[in-house]
UniProtKB/TrEMBL annotation:
Species for this entry: Halobellus ruber
TM ranges: none
Alphabetized InterPro entries for the sequence: Peptidase_S8/S53_dom, Peptidase_S8/S53_dom_sf, Peptidase_S8_subtilisin-like, Peptidase_S8_subtilisin-rel
Keywords for the protein's UniProt record, in alphabetical order: Hydrolase, Protease, Serine protease
Protein name: S8 family serine peptidase
One GO molecular-function entry: serine-type endopeptidase activity
An individual GO BP term: proteolysis
Pfam family, one: Peptidase_S8
Basic and acidic residues bias spans: 434-448
The Peptidase S8/S53 domain, residue ranges: 318-425
Region Disordered, residue ranges: 430-456
PANTHER family to which the protein is assigned, alphabetical: CEREVISIN-RELATED, PEPTIDASE S8
């Protein structure tokens, strides 16, 4: 297989399984990534319905006034939307080709969710294409004095320990006093991780089987097919050799290899990308090791991860599927609550992170959303609006204080206690506001806390 070092990256708005998300994907110098999902910009989404408890806060005059929310968007935003026109105070594009901004509803939907929760907050919007664009956008929004920064994007293939271009920019923004909110991702059913286990066939064993079967996206028929996009990631320091991700078809004539991956990242974190268009059928992926390096046929001390963008994995492992920039230590990492608020949405990514952190701070309802499908981006936008409400009422806008309020007042969901699936529980904007209101006159340091921590 011919290997190329792929240096360019592009952001893509896509619909995955049961959620809408924005992803950073690798591409070759000749672009192979496409923008999938969303609708034409001529269609104007309506303002999402506001939950009763949030409306009650608005009726008390708690509307996010005097708070500013910065939003990093990928798809073209409809700044002339009647709900957004009076709220957007500044816009800037960091794309090389601003006119080439892809059409879609994701950016507009994120802004509408924030405006629905915090209707008097001012919005600043930055449009981006690459992680470098996103870094510059975060720096610009931070320099503009933004109180809350929403980054509704997931970086596929980035290090999971909170480093990387976008996650590092998030850390710097938090250091300068900005509350940064990011979705955990919609990858719980599209992710597998485990120890690299060689077999005598030269393939990795996924818990006893060298095949990882692909399932179609939810609602997309009974067979996998169409565009298949997958990533293989591993620690290059622990295993400094090549691994290859391969796509196979199983049929009446036997098993046929139909696509192989290309390298997109080298160094301490290595990434292989597979991108192919195939007809529907019985498809599976496999991880190939170079035979000359295999000496022991037992699990090696190195973890590998396989992640797909659209297709579900038959034996997915939700644990560890949280993605950058939500993996940044200072970000408020937000997952999606189940529709009945009793647990976690099945697609919502989980922790822990590779460096042992929980990875999820809270979950929020993803239903306050004007896009075609909800997801963790919708949940994060809800949380960003809630943070704006807190800042408009509190005497401080420090990230630690705001995030601590949101975590301390969250409603626990099973299993009991803070965990890597739902963090501290379901976000409770009303409880957070009431915490800072009662009793009046109490200083920040003397306000009671229900958990002994300075932030999530």
């Amino acid at each position: 297989m011919t290997r190329r070092h792929l240096e360019a990256v592009v952001l893509a708005a896509v619909v995955v399984t049961a959620g809408t998300g924005v992803y950073v994907v690798d591409r070759a110098p000749t672009p192979t990534a496409t923008f999938v999902g969303g609708t034409a910009s001529g269609e104007q989404p309506t303002r999402p319905s506001v939950p009763t408890r949030i409306r009650a806060l608005h009726q008390r005059g708690i509307t996010g006034a005097n708070a500013t929310v910065g939003i990093v968007v990928v798809t073209r935003i409809n700044a002339d939307h009647p709900e957004l026109r009076p709220r957007i105070v500044e816009r800037r594009s960091f794309r090389r080709d601003p006119a080439g901004q892809p059409r879609g509803r994701h950016g507009t939907a994120a802004a509408l969710t924030v405006a629905a929760i915090a209707p008097d907050a001012e919005l600043l919007v930055a449009t981006v294409d690459t992680p470098t664009d996103a870094r510059r956008a975060i720096e610009w929004l931070t320099a503009r004095g933004t109180d809350v920064l929403l980054v509704p994007a997931t970086v596929l293939g980035a290090p999971g320990d909170g480093t990387g271009t976008v996650a590092s920019a998030v850390e710097r923004a938090a250091d300068r006093g900005t509350v940064v909110v990011a979705p955990t991702g919609n990858l719980a059913r599209n992710h597998w991780q485990g120890r690299l286990t060689p077999t005598r066939r030269g393939l990795h064993s996924f818990g006893g089987d060298v095949r990882m079967r692909l399932l179609p996206p939810v609602g997309a028929g009974t067979q996998a097919g169409g565009r298949v996009q997958a990533r293989l990631r591993w620690n290059g320091s622990a295993y400094p050799r090549d691994l290859t991700l391969e796509l196979y078809r199983s049929g009446a004539s036997g098993v046929t290899r139909i696509a192989t991956s290309e390298r997109t990242r080298t160094g301490s974190v290595r990434v292989e990308r597979l991108d192919a268009r195939v007809r529907p059928g019985d498809l599976f992926v496999a991880v190939r090791l170079p035979n000359r390096t295999v000496r022991r046929f037992e699990p090696l001390p190195v973890r590998i991860e396989v992640t797909t963008r659209r297709h579900r994995l038959l034996n997915a492992t939700p644990a560890g599927s949280v993605a950058s920039p939500a993996t940044a230590p200072s970000a408020l990492s937000v997952g999606a609550a189940a529709p009945d608020d009793a647990g976690l949405a099945p697609y919502s990514s989980r922790g822990p992170t590779p460096d042992g952190r929980r990875g999820v701070d809270v979950v929020a309802p993803p239903t306050v959303w004007a896009g075609p499908r909800d997801g963790t981006s919708a949940a994060a936008a809800y949380a960003a609006g809630a943070a704006a409400l807190i800042i408009s009422e509190a005497d401080t806008s420090s990230p630690e204080r705001v995030i601590t309020l949101l975590c301390d007042t969250a409603v626990d969901v099973p299993p009991a206690g803070a965990d890597a699936e739902s963090g501290y529980g379901r976000l409770n904007a009303t409880g957070a506001v009431e915490r800072i209101e009662a009793p009046k006159g109490r200083t920040e340091d003397s306000q009671p806390r229900t958990k002994p921590h300075t932030r999530c």
